[in-house]
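Input record (one chain):
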Amino acid sequence: MKPLIFWLRERHGSIRAVAELLGMPEATLRGYVYNRKRKNIPPQSAEAIVRLTLAHRPPRSRLDTWEVTPGTLWS
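The corresponding structure, as predicted from the sequence alone:
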């Protein structure tokens, strides 16, 4: 999870900006990144981080659509 948070920090400029986009306190997000004793992140927070990361993906291609719904590419 730390690499995703660092990637988001590079994209948005700061941990504070990422925390605002995630709707969580900055101290909580910093704890996820810098607290060495912490081994797990709550599922809801992990899901939000992944969703924000995936939001930066380019729009789906026709091949992605075909993979999700077989047969739609050629119809």
